Amino acid sequence: MHRCLLALIAFLFFQSVLAQTPSTGLRGLVKSTAGDALPYAAVVVRKSAADDRPTGTITNSEGRYDIALAPGAYTITFQSLGFQNVQKTVEISNDYKVLDVTLTEQALRLAEVQAKAGKEDPAYTIMRRAIAKSRFHQLQVQRFKARVYTKSTITITDLPFGAESLFRKQLKEAERDANFKVGVPILNETVSEVTFQQPNIYRQRVIANRNSQGDFLSPSQFYNVSFYSPTVAGAVSPLSPKAFGYYKFEYQGTFRENGPDGRPVEVSKIQVIPRQYGEGVFRGTIFIIENTWAIYSLQLETVSSLGISFTIRNLCSPIKGVWMPTNQRYSGAGSYLGVKGNAQYVRNLTFNEFVINPAFVEDIEVVDEKKAQPAQTLSKGDIKGQQFDNLVQKQKEFSTKNLRQMMKEYEKQEKQTRKKQGADVTVVRDDSLVIDTLARQRSTAFWDSLRSVPLTSDERISYRKNDSLRVIRTGDKTKIDSLNKAGNPSAKKTKPITIGKLLMGNTWYPSKPTSLSYTGPLSQLNYNTVEGYTAELGLLLRYRPRVDSVNRFVKIPLSEWSVGGTARYQFGRQNLIGYGQAGYRHKATRIDLTGGRYLFQYNPDNPISPALNGITTLLFERNFMKLYQKDFANLTVTATPFQSRVTLTGSLEYAQRTELENFKENIKPLIDWRNRTYTPNRPVNEELASTAFPVHSLVTLNLTASARLGATEYTIRNGRRTARRDNDAPLLTLNYRKGMGVNSADPVSYDFVQATLAHSFELGIRSRLSYQVSAGSFLNDKKLYFPDFKHFAGNEFFLQQGDPVSVFRLLPYYQYSTGKRFAEGHLLGEFRQLVLTQLTVLRLLGLKENVFVHYLATPASRNYTEVGYGLDGLIPQVLPFFRVEVISQWQDAQYKGLGFRIGTTLKFGRQ
Length: 911
Hints:
Layout: H1 2-20, E1 25-32, E2 42-46, E3 55-58, E4 64-68, E5 72-79, E6 86-92, E7 96-98, E8 101-103, H2 123-132, H3 134-139, E9 141-158, H4 163-166, H5 168-178, E10 186-197, E11 201-211, E12 231-232, E13 235-236, H6 243-246, E14 247-258, E15 264-274, E16 283-289, E17 295-303, E18 309-319, E19 322-336, E20 339-356, E21 365-367, H7 380-383, H8 388-394, E22 397-399, H9 400-420, E23 427-435, H10 444-450, H11 457-487, H12 499-504, E24 505-511, E25 514-519, E26 526-528, E27 532-543, E28 547-551, E29 554-557, E30 559-570, E31 575-586, E32 589-601, H13 610-620, E33 627-639, H14 641-644, E34 646-659, E35 696-708, E36 714-717, E37 720-723, E38 731-741, E39 749-764, E40 767-783, E41 821-831, H15 840-844, E42 848-857, E43 864-872, E44 882-891, E45 894-904
Parallel strand pairs: 1-7, 1-8, 11-23, 21-22, 23-36
Antiparallel strand pairs: 1-4, 2-3, 2-5, 5-6, 9-10, 9-20, 10-11, 12-13, 14-15, 15-16, 16-17, 17-18, 18-19, 19-20, 24-25, 25-27, 26-27, 27-30, 28-29, 30-31, 31-32, 32-33, 33-34, 34-35, 35-38, 36-37, 38-39, 39-40, 40-41, 41-42, 42-43, 43-44, 44-45
Helix pairs in contact: 2-9
């Protein structure tokens, strides 16, 4: 009885679902007068001319469209960039209606203000008014909800030279198992529900996702952005207040279109011409609606830092009188690391809810004061403290200057209001992405009811092949699981321990809150002249009992316990050393306890990594790393209060320090270089005749505080707060270190203080200036040894490693370390366009030029200075993250020599 009742309920449920899925609609082909199919044309559907929340679709790459509609009368508008709109009235009855449409190319007429010789191009007065009103258009929408359909295809067209023959077997397996093949598109479809709330909140919930290769999403830096913003994906918008510094504009003509309400609109076509094309700017065409100065459509192209070209096409439709981008198309093509490919992204928005900002209900007229003065001009005093809507009610016409001032005053008042209400005004963007648990399990019927763009024949084939592969994979997995359960009911899904994992390391997850990380000996195999060859084994157990779930894909641990240890065997000294560690973290506070015996570089910032030193020692007979032994116990507490704006660190350490020599004399290198020999492990220093020290014990107190001087803007992604690098405030760091001897006839006694100020800010688009200045002194230098000195980030190898701002390029590691006082300064300018990059072809390859200066003053350094020039993108589009540098050395304003370095833009840290 119960089974029959359940069956009846299920039957009625599915009948209701099918009843809600229309079996009627409209489909057809959109083509040009030449008979060519028009891909990605917009099809806007309104129930009447007064319908202010239209639905719609777009044509696929074959020019075909398909949209499900309930029976009734509709007004259909067909749009395509560069073509005249066509409106049709259709009556949908009890089946699908076929409607093919032919679009005629847009006929432009030149306005009477066409530029004459010596006169300003009329495009400039259009763009001045559009730029002045851009912020008005951006703030006009209070909130909205929309259903967003996205379809993307990514095609790998070519692999690096020799890859297809070298990895033939792997490529065949990828084609068989993952539906991947060179030249065959990878298809991805996503249906999302997107909500927006002023000033900066975006929420996206993915309700369906399907892919022809596997399950993945294709986010885009261009998606939830507006061309009314000053920048779009890091490039200057043609509607930015700074646009005239980056672009020239040409008037191409005007055309008239009938709007959805039957009233005509005048649209001007403006050519966007960058003064210097390359990364950070656009080129192409933008269409501006006369009088409202809103974007009608656009087609713009830019190039990324990797040399990949992107083309953006937007078609807008009026939603409650506001022109919104309802049809978006993005395409990209290029190569990276020898892999060539192209991609197409299509996005269609249907608005379900749309609320206009009450302060911007009434439209206003904008007058270009360079052409004609408005009837009334406001002063700053007239605008300050006034409500925007009150000003608009009193006066409908404003100059471009007054409008910009009014918008700034409005945003200032809104920010103050939100601050009084307790909102965090330093957050400039708050995004979240949630994926529905059924998103990747939707049926074909479900997709057919939601899909805005019909599939092409090739795309259907790709999906069918992937569905077949998924069935095979699922069947194999089911069979294996069944066998495991049959043979061993208690069998668990555990990964087998292999020789590779034992040698290189691995991470296991015994339970959801627990992880065990193992470091294998080959992953940390190094060589130095103090220890010979070294190998390490490490274990670290982490336990996270509490997790804050932002959504089911992003989980942020609220607390964490950890315990572990590292063992290191020194083959040259035939000795085993190591240390243990334990830690606890809760939210923004962390406590760490470490102790044991280990070897440390004299500079605690590790100026050369063990791996790089192993290479220089074995292959170039240059043993740069200098080490001493420390038996220690260390307690460190770190806190980041005030939403991570301030970082406080304190440590207390007991240590017994021992000087070490090379593990043997006359070490034979792998390659015996003429005029080179291994140096002793004792560093050479200008202030000390000898850096030797006896075995001694001491306690060291180390306190550090860092804070931003000013408000730093942040973005939030799924609950994670990140400082915006392009708008950081200066970072001030204060450090106090005190050394106190233990059980010694001549105990260590010193006090050291240091202050550092660092800042990085944009000079212009894709150009940045970064600096760091530090100064410090030993207030008490009664007794200290060389490990207590202030050391600097030097470099003596041709490969520059670490932060390019604060690292010297040619400074010997320990020559100018000081036990007295110091001052140092670093300056790095990164320029999109300087000398060589004046040539457009070099900018398009992704090259960028740098100029830098490094300065050091100690009692012995004699105003040591480095001045250098760098070129990023050493091998464009193959190894784009390498840079080459040329550096000159100076002391007391006298030239000392020239050096060259190869570095990386990836800014690897030092270990």
